[in-house]
Amino acid sequence: MGKIAGIVKEGGQRAQRWMNQQQAGTARALALDEQYSSQRGKAYLNGIDVHSGQVWATVPPVEVDGESWTVLLWDLRDQGIRSLSTVSDGGRAIQEALRQVHGEEKHQRDVWHLFHVAAQVQARLDRAVKTEHDRLLVIQRQAAREASGKRARGRPPKATLPEQQALIAQMEYVAGGVGYLCQQLHTLLEVVVLHSGRVLSSEYRQGEIEAVLDLLNELVPLARPALQEHIQMLSKHLRQALPQTLLFARQLDAMQEHASRILGPEAVALLAWAWVRRAVLGPTSKDLLQSVPPAWRAEASNLLAAWDQAVRASSAVENWHSIVRPHLAVHRTLSAGMLALLAIWHNHRIAPRGLHEGLSPLQRTGSTSSEGNWLAALGYSVLAA
Hints:
The protein is α/β, with parallel strands linked by helices. The protein folds into three domains: about 1-110 and about 315-375, 2-Layer Sandwich (Nucleotidyltransferase, domain 5); about 110-245; about 250-310, no CATH class. It is built from 16 helices and seven strands. The strands form two sheets. It has a five-stranded mixed sheet, sandwiched between helices. It is globular and about 90 Å long. The protein starts with a helix and ends in an 8-residue tail after the last helix.
């Protein structure tokens, strides 16, 4: 056991040195997030490449505060990894660190976390409606017994049958309204949004989302007092996140406007329509290019690539969490060496299927590393690898 522990320790030290020597030839988009540990108030901090999934940094449990994230971002910058943009779920510690290091003007708010908050509020409204429907059945049974001349059972209902039906109708109206508005929000935060034969700009999207939030506020007085605070919380949460949520759309504006001047708005709308349905027509953007007129291809290639590379979510770091989680379940805690070993294994792992089949995160990043095996990258013999 001592010899095995010594080998693991030495491998962890080599892995840490390898991680600290990682380089990126171009500016990268980074997904940032914490993965909480068994130690109260502490978490693993992770910085993952959005487009390739390469692990740039993973830190053992530290305090979740702006100082810890600032140190991690400084280390990445000193290592030579330039950040094109960042994306996270909007945690305060990350926001504080970004103000110190990069600035928040290039920070994208993860849209799926916002959709999750909206889904939670919708679920509460739906449960409340179901509860009132169950109560309506009790009232109906009581009314039927009384109508047949039988003695009522249990406590007398708090509302009459017409009152309960009116309450349910109002609650269903509120729940349906919130559901519709959240669906509109979901549509407006897609990478490409088509309306009346045109691709919507970020400015138009923002106006539409603000209208959605105003309508959401109008539903608050119609909801029951116990549910009003949830709708208010959702509206406030979305409004505060809106500027950073639409960063990806603002970054696409210039490319879409340039393509509209060269190809025309109708051509851009047609490309957008095809890109949204690329899983059927493509399934990749390269396949779509073969179906467009040759005169369009140069500009269409840039536009389709911009849509492909648009950053709306921090899914890459969530995928990394799913890889780390089973190891945490076994070891309870992971040292810096063990984390580095896991990161190097992941960075060299060839995807067996899916969109990136046959490629490792290092290859997707464009790394020129000559070592294709993670053990060989650590300096172990080819036979051991």
